[in-house]
């Protein structure tokens, strides 16, 4: 009797509806795109793929994490400085992505919906550890849907997830790749075309016992450093988005303060190098 | 009788349902499983037969603060536990870390299976109860899919049974009586022989709990469960009881013999 039940029901994988993890945009695309027909043009697509410039970083400090990102959205030579790339996912968790903006938007909405779905099921608040696993699942499942095509079209995102884990009583950082690989980092994470440049600053200056102020300044410096050499993510054109998260909650650095701090770091660097101070620093909002 | 010869479809009739329901209740049986909560843990008590039962066989620890207990056919409970394990594995593999696989997750995915088994005409001979130490609530699911929430303590099993076999009416009892009077006499005879252990057990446990949501100490809960079992569990050949304490994520058991009633020791004068 019970054996029948076992044979008929669980694979539990099928019980959990995939609709909570599939990006709607990919669901539609999957039914419309003929992969075989596309094969001859793939080479051209890869060659002419537009890169999406971004610098987003997150680092740990003694009480939690700081997450920061530039605001530039670009498509070839066209760009806009109104993209807020660091988003609050709830429950002391923040996400920042590099990649296609529509994909990022869809990814964030799907993660929020998956989190709420599971919070209803398990009647618990899902913090960063749970959200990281859900995000991994979303990325993996959607990569399985379109794999090569998705990558060829440049329709993907590389997120970082940072937040405070109240159970372990410390900040946690997760780095993902577009195929759903999840990697936890102990010190800092970067993503985007400016990530490598920012990583050089972080590698040089990061310390385990940074306080919140120093961590915020380091984050701004790292994003600015990346913006200087990476044409797609200039931190000097718009205020950098910075959030600090600890057990007491999350705090956003006000835009004007972020600009002022960036400005003072910029001046200090110029002075140190004996360069002339130019009027190269402004914000659209100022 | 109910099988369609050309396929394995079972024709569901109300008779079949009643028969299966009675069958399941019979298999769960007259003996009791009592669970009582105290401040930091729970005490579970049930009849124990060294030859037939494994230690703590009716208890499945789900995580350090919650467990599920069952009573009925051991095969059904074992399969239920396997399903719980496979559910946990699926979730931790695919969706969330282990600490999010809480009691409500098991309840929401596994309890409906008991109902669907009943509705498909194959009720499981199994009653279960989920206990969460973080709240004083216990959730029971019966073999027919009925669910109920209790506070402080819960009792499984204890289905009504006939204490003594019915005797045929003597000619004296039927003399000068109408048909209606005879059927009334027969009903009284039947009802006087029916025992309802669960009702007695609940009554006894209520006397320990009063208005409390949980008892204060382990000893209080042990005493309450022990006394209730000794008093209300139907007599059987093996009079051993297993009392298990669940505290700090650990299960520890003690085994007690029910003292024989003083009347049982009276010997015939030589």
Q: Can you walk me through this structure?
A:
The complex is a heterodimer of chains A (286) and B (270). In chain A, helix 6 runs antiparallel to helix 7, helix 8 packs antiparallel against helix 9 (212-229) and helix 9 (212-229) crosses helix 10 (255-273). The longest helix of chain A has 25 residues, at 128-152. Helix content of chain A is 44%, strand content 22%. Chain A is built from ten helices and twelve strands. The relative contact order of chain A is 0.17. Chain A has 286 residues and is an alpha+beta fold. Chain B is globular, with a radius of gyration of 22 Å. Chain B contains seven helices and twelve strands. Chain B is of the alpha+beta class and 270 residues long. Helix content of chain B is 37%, strand content 25%. In chain B, the strands form three sheets. In chain B, strands 8-1-2-11-12 form a five-stranded antiparallel sheet, with helices on one face. Chain B has a five-stranded antiparallel sheet with strand order 3-4-5-6-7. A two-stranded antiparallel sheet of chain B has the order 9-10. Chain B has helices spanning 14-28, 74-94, 103-119, 171-174, 179-193, 197-209, 218-232, and strands spanning 32-38, 41-47, 59-63, 66-72, 126-132, 137-141, 147-151, 153-157, 161-162, 194-195, 240-247, 250-257. The A-B interface holds A 1-6, 9-13, 15-16, 118, 121-124, 126, 129-130, 133-134, 137, 167 and B 75-76, 79-80, 82-83, 86-87, 90-91, 94-97, 99-102, 104-105, 108-109, 113, 117, 122, 124.
